[in-house]
Amino acid sequence: MRILLLIIFPLVSFTQDVAIGYWKDYLAYNQVTDLAVVNEKTYCIAQGGVFYYDNEDNSINRISKINGLTENQAEKISFDEISNTILISYENCNIDLIQDNEVINIPDIKRKEISGLKKINNIYFKNNLAYLSCSFGVVVLDLIKKEIKDTYKIGENGIYLAINQTTIIEEDIYVATNQGLYYSETNNQFLSDYTQWTKDTFFTDSTLINARFINIGVFNDLLISIVDGQKDYLLIKNQSWEKLIDYGFERPELNISTNNIYVTDSNSISIINSNLQENSITSFSNAYTCEEKRENEIWIADKTDGLLKYINGVETERYQVNSPVSNKIYSLEFFSNKLFINHGGHMNFSVNMLNNEGASFYKNLTWKNLDFFDLNRARDIVAVASTDNAEYYASWYNGISKMEDETHIIKYGYQNTGGILDTTFYSNNRIQISDLVIDDNNNLWGLNSQVNKPLFVKKSDDSWFSFSINQNIDGLYFDELLIDNSNYKWGVMHQRGLFVYNDNNTIENSLDDEYKILNTTIGNGNLPSINIRTIEKDIDGEIWIGSDQGIAVIYSPELAFSGYNFDAQQILIQEGEYGQYLLSSEKINCIEIDGANRKWIGTENAGLFLLSEDGTEEVLHFTKENSPIFSNKIIDICINHDNGEVFIGTDLGLMSYRSDATIGEIKQNETFVFPNPVKENYRGNIAINKLVRDARVKITDINGNLVYETIANGGQANWNGMNYNNERVGTGVYLVFSTDENGYEKAVSKILFIK
User: pLDDT band for position 11 (50/70/90)?
Assistant: First the structure.
């Protein structure tokens, strides 16, 4: 059992900079699938995340692994009023209890080795116990002792059944299974023995005895259940089970209050009162469940429309969180003060995902989405590039869509590019664009898979050209493209190494072009593996290569066509008494360069690394075990170089980390200090930003006494508020001096410090 303090983040705090070394989540929160009313708060599960709406101050507040939860893939949530406990269960069957603003983790089910499916289907509370209906039985959790009390395995002849829901009526406990209803006495000390359970056979329709029962509960001292059949029935038990109402349910969810029975099913909610009279609300898009807060007021979890509030059957409020449309991430981009999530994509290149979610982008504190229809029927978006106030979206299926101010302008394909954007050899309508890059002349370059001329360019005058690298086009898939300081084009070929192409700055004349295909052979690339997964150019122009066998660097890419050796080199690091190549046992998914020329490395299974400029030192290593990071599988990384925020795309969603480096300024102008003033309760680093690269920075008190001295990380210096004696400085004004682009020292900022 682990106990953590829960720190609530109001939604507004996510519109502000966080301190250096702190995290933010950018999860999707709008597909609400479960909820729990907790006094004046309504807690919601949405795409694996948790948030709540506070009815007292009208705020929306997020809860995630960043501020106290154990996991991120939340699946069920429920509230026990007697013990004042919120219980959250996760996809992997981990459990968090929230009591008195503390999170208590109960990992027993998660850790338990169970053959077959392991899943928590429902949560039911009674007498300070939580009955967890699971795919393998019922787990009883003591909410006071915060420990597993018992496990009931139920089924005939020792064949244990999945339990869909549990309830207690008077002295009996009932469970709904896929093969009928079972019951026993609650005071039976041997409920873990399947022989102590009896199948309920008291039905007016005997064909239902072995039916699949989805839900069960108690209303007005009578049992209520939903049976799944050719036609679904809501049953009620007097002496025997009788059909109360028949339905054609798709996905029924039973909720029972003191006043009513609620059956939520996609586009409708049926409400049955104490006289067993039925009313219904039929205005929903994709309702999953509901809960009564008070008489005639219900809250609804709708996967399409978010959190809804209804009073007397009429919608009065609708709450949607400012967030991305989805947690699916194929790639990330940050430019023009705008963050993009391209939702993808394809599955290992050969199979399209057929994803219509397009791309989400974040600007001016607001998330928006451009989907399949916004992009003029373009799906599987894998990249975006921008020039001349236009954005170009690369589709792995439908070519390139051009947008201006969120308005579609044109979709480029085979017909309107003169055949430059060719279709794949096996299809007359599929165009697989893998990446887009803008060069220094505002030309749009890209890669197109399984065609004869895969490298293409749209010049700024809207003329199109394409170039061959003479490869067998069957299975010729491309990934990333970059343009180096010599204007050479470097591209990743899936499981075929790299290519480098030189158009000799004469795009229209292909006769003077040259290219090379790089592989693992010495003198012909010396790549660590033929399976290259990412490439990135650093501030010095070196090309960093990520493969399924670690990192390599091409230190002199300008020599690619010189006749001299420019082979990739792996970095030898010391591990104890032995040397080994950098991250050679890891699959590298992405590389990003920060303002200090350090390397952020995202891996398939080992989390996120920050390496020194030359890669020989590990500065940071974040994993899901030692940090708030959502997953050890890092899909992509991008950086806001103005403030050092590192955006981290994982297979479980997007988050960010505020690093201590920014891009250095060419000329020293006005600086930015965050936070300023430094209040008495602040204990993080103080960032002095917008300095020239690697400036020497001195901090003095108002009398000129030196307090601290450091070198900027790129364009940002960092001060922990301590003097040379490791004491927190006193209240007062402190002066910041920095060397400018000519090496001269001058005052650039003042910091008000409150002790």
Answer: very low
